[in-house]
């Protein structure tokens, strides 16, 4: 929950009187715009027609969709709260956040916004929380819900679409995608695991992409090596060069026998017997 400073209480009270809403309603919207980094809000309050959304630049949706008068009042309130938040150093951040503030949105306003560098002076909207409260790291502010059990604690940031889990000192930040988280629970049966409830029912935490572990982005997995190419094996075995060499020797011997027989060195009977022996080797 936000803890307003005296200046913050005065600013919210002045805003409530100006726009005709209760102090509680304006405080609720202030938290929503702050969760949206000063440029958008997802809210739910009966004075605003129930659940709705606002985005800097003209997009406003409320539950009472045909009440254009109320829609205009909500839009004006959100725009004034955005100017108030953006006038406070350290409340919004730039960079890779999902809903960045627009350049130049640092104008002051009629509620005495802080334009200096000291966030603890008399004009600050909020009492600075103790450093140990921000265990999820400096990139996330104002969680929508927090909790913990059995050595595990969590913090959910709806507009940033982030879920921070601290298990035994290891802080892992997840991308919650389009889940609207209603609670986080720890299962002990069959091994310790964490699941959360959303509009899709109960979902295992390991189905969410990991953004960082202890402030460091995880390394991308190395690509799998390409499979080694093996040449196809022929269906028929390669011819035997040993067999070819033997056949060549036999044919050469037969030619020599024929030459010896023609010269009268071998008789016809000797030639026939030797020829039959060589041919039997083929």
Secondary-structure blueprint of this entry?
Blueprint: H1 6-19, H2 23-35, E1 40-45, E2 50-55, E3 59-62, H3 68-86, E4 145-149, E5 152-157, E6 162-167, E7 170-175, E8 183-187, E9 193-198, E10 201-204, E11 210-213, H4 241-262, H5 268-279
Antiparallel strand pairs: 1-2, 2-3, 4-5, 5-6, 6-7, 7-11, 8-9, 9-10
Helix pairs in contact: 1-2, 2-3, 4-5
Helix content: 25-40%
Order of helices and strands: HHEEEHEEEEEEEEHH
Overall geometric form = rod-shaped
Average pLDDT reading: 75
**Biggest β-sheet strands, sense, barrel:** 5 strands, antiparallel
Class of secondary structure makeup: alpha+beta
What oligomeric arrangement do these chains adopt? single chain
Tally of contiguous helical segments: 5
How far apart, in Å, are the first and last alpha carbons? 99 Å
Tell me the total number of β-strands: 11
Q: Using the CA coordinates, give the radius of gyration.
A: 41 Å
Question: Which residues sit in consecutive blocks of at least 5 with pLDDT less than 50?
Answer: 94-121, 238-243
| Lateral strand order in the biggest sheet | 4-5-6-7-11
Q: Classify the beta-strand content into a percent band.
A: 15-25%
């Amino acid at each position: 929950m936000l803890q307003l400073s005296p200046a913050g209480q005065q600013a919210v009270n002045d805003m409530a009187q100006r726009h005709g809403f209760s102090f509680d309603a304006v405080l609720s919207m202030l938290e929503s715009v702050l969760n949206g980094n000063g440029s958008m809000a997802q809210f739910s309050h009966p004075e605003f027609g129930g659940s709705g959304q606002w985005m800097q630049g003209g997009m406003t949706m409320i539950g009472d969709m045909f009440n254009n008068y109320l829609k205009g009042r909500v839009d004006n309130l959100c725009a004034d709260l955005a100017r108030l938040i953006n006038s406070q150093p350290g409340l919004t951040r730039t960079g890779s956040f999902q809903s960045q503030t627009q350049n130049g949105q640092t104008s002051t306003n009629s509620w005495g916004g802080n334009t200096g560098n000291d966030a603890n002076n008399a004009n600050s909207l909020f009492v600075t929380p103790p450093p140990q409260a921000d265990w999820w790291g400096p990139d996330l502010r104002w969680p929508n819900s927090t909790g913990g059990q059995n050595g595990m604690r969590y913090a959910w940031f709806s507009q940033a679409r982030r879920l921070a889990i601290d298990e035994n000192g290891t802080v892992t930040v997840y991308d919650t995608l389009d889940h609207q988280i209603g609670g986080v629970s720890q299962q002990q049966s069959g091994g310790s695991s964490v699941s959360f409830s959303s509009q899709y029912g109960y979902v295992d935490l390991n189905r969410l992409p990991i953004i960082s572990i202890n402030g460091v982005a995880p390394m991308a997995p190395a690509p799998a090596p390409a499979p080694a190419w093996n040449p196809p094996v022929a269906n028929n075995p390669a011819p035997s060069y040993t067999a070819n060499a033997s056949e060549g020797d036999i044919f050469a011997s037969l030619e020599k026998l024929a030459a010896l027989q023609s010269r009268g060195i071998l008789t016809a009977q000797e030639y026939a017997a030797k020829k039959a022996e060589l041919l039997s080797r083929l």
